[in-house]
From TrEMBL:
<feature type="domain" description="VOC">
    <location>
        <begin position="12"/>
        <end position="137"/>
    </location>
</feature>
<protein>
    <submittedName>
        <fullName>VOC family protein</fullName>
    </submittedName>
</protein>
<dbReference type="InterPro" id="IPR004360">
    <property type="entry name" value="Glyas_Fos-R_dOase_dom"/>
</dbReference>
<dbReference type="Pfam" id="PF00903">
    <property type="entry name" value="Glyoxalase"/>
</dbReference>
<dbReference type="InterPro" id="IPR037523">
    <property type="entry name" value="VOC_core"/>
</dbReference>
<dbReference type="InterPro" id="IPR029068">
    <property type="entry name" value="Glyas_Bleomycin-R_OHBP_Dase"/>
</dbReference>
Amino acid sequence: MTNNNRPKLVPRLTAVTLGVHDIRRSIAFYEALGFARKAKETGEAIAFYDTGASLLALFPWDQLADDAKLPDQPRPQAFRGTTMGWNCSSPEEVDAVLAFAVSCGATLIKPAHKTEYGGYSGYFADPDGHAWDVVVAPGIEVGDDRRVHLAD
């Protein structure tokens, strides 16, 4: 049974918020990576970055947990079940992004390598251990606008 009075909702991901231990350090890291900070009047309460089609936000870990009504402890030391992606247009770009991220303070988790699906990928972690997959993958095009384009 459908409800004809229900508004048509379009699912979309508009923001990813990362809980961080030291917001000052994380702001410096993401600015060093080249993300454009917006709404700077928030100071160190929260930081917003324009990523193209969505936002990346940094928020103190304990405050984010409190806001979501989730326990702050124990903080995970292992894989969290989530990665962020930085799609590239070539293997050379993957290598360059990984080297650049490490020069900005990231930790290399997994060096770039050919994947079993015909791509090329490597991983780095930000100062709080949030994992980033840097990848070029068949069927995923990075346009001149630097946005990801998928075939229908």
